[in-house]
């Protein structure tokens, strides 16, 4: 049995029996209960017909067993039987023994033993249940700790790779190669940041706003543009499963980076709006709108040299969705995901 101080936050039944580490106090309390039962039996004696010698002692057996354990339950049962035998069975103030009295005492012993045994089994079952619950809680805490450590290490490793690519860029003279390494470094850093904040140990879906807002801010900071404003709009309860949220976040990051690099090239300031909504079929529609230069007529992603746009289109296809750039007053990058995402 667990000590009471070890189960202070447990349900009441799981804290029983109490005072198991203080047997003297438990015995005194049991004796007080037996004495109260004897007084009550004497007080109620005029109200009862002949018989009922144990009527006030049975509740004490149950109460003592539940509160203080099987030993105190048996003690109260023995004392209650002796007191009933002495005062209320046969001639008063003496221990008489006959076949009828022996039968009555035998049935009393059987009932008392059954009560104590059932309560003892229940308390043992409660103790085992509480121990299993504590073990499960400890395993869950360990799993969460290991998961967070794993995520932390994975994110750090991605950040290290991004830093190594950035260092390698300094030793490359070709401008195209430097740009490729710079893009690879940026993407690795973005993936690392997404990985750090996205996954939950329970595998639950994550709130999209809490993912996109810091992500877009990171992309703007990485670009070095202080004159670009990004606003994220989505319903407060919009959620996506991690398997869909990671590609979606990468596509949004590529779209924001593309808007900064091409939409705002050669001009001061700009505004980017990221909006997530539900389509008519229950799917997800993500739009990244900027007020930049826009796209030329006849623009097609599959004919562009931009690796980022091709990656965005490929990720959308993996999610059984679509990605497109739409011209007009600025540019709108539209990602449409089916309802299964």
From TrEMBL:
The keyword Kinase applies. It is an enzyme of class 2 (transferase). It catalyses: ATP + protein L-histidine = ADP + protein N-phospho-L-histidine. Residues 149-341 form the Histidine kinase domain. The keyword Nucleotide-binding applies. Pfam families: DUF4118, HATPase_c, HisKA_2. Its EC number is 2.7.13.3. It is found in: Membrane. It is a multi-pass membrane protein. Coiled coil: none annotated. GO terms for molecular function: kinase activity. PROSITE patterns: HIS_KIN (PS50109). It comes from the Bacteria. Its main location: membrane. Keywords: ATP-binding, Kinase, Membrane, Nucleotide-binding, Phosphoprotein, Transferase, Transmembrane, Transmembrane helix, Two-component regulatory system. The chain crosses the membrane at residues 25-44, 50-68, 73-91, 97-119. This is histidine kinase. It comes from Sphingomonas japonica.
């Amino acid at each position: 049995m667990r000590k009471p101080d070890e189960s202070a936050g447990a349900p009441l039944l799981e804290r029983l029996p109490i005072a198991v580490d203080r047997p003297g106090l438990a015995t005194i309390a049991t004796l007080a209960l037996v004495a109260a039962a004897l007084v009550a039996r004497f007080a109620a004696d005029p109200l009862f017909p002949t018989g009922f010698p144990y009527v006030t002692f049975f509740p004490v057996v149950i109460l003592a067993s539940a509160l203080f354990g099987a030993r105190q339950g048996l003690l109260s049962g023995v004392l209650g039987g002796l007191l009933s035998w002495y005062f209320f069975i046969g001639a008063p103030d003496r221990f008489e023994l006959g076949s009828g009295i022996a039968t009555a005492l035998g049935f009393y012993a059987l009932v008392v033993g059954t009560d104590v045994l059932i309560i003892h089994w229940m308390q043992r079952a409660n103790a085992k249940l509480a121990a299993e619950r504590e073990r499960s809680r400890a395993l869950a805490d360990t799993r969460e700790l290991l998961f967070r450590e794993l995520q932390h290490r994975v994110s750090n490793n991605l950040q290290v790779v991004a830093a190594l690519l950035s260092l390698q860029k300094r030793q490359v003279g070709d401008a195209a190669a430097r740009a490729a390494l710079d893009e690879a470094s940026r993407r690795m850093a973005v993936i690392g940041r997404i990985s750090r904040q996205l996954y939950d140990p329970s595998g639950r879906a994550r709130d999209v706003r809490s993912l996109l807002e810091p992500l877009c801010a990171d992309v703007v900071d990485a670009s070095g543009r202080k004159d670009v404003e990004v606003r994220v709009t989505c319903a407060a309860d919009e959620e996506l499963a991690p398997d869909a949220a990671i590609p979606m976040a990468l596509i949004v990051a590529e779209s924001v980076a593309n808007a900064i690099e091409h939409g705002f090239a050669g001009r001061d300031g700009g505004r980017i709006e990221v909006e997530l909504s539900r389509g008519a079929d229950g799917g997800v529609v993500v739009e990244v709108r900027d007020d930049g230069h826009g796209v030329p007529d006849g623009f097609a992603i599959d004919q562009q040299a931009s690796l980022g746009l091709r990656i965005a289109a490929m990720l959308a296809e993996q999610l059984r969705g679509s990605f497109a750039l739409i011209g007009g007053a600025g540019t709108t990058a539209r990602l449409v995901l089916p309802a299964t995402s």
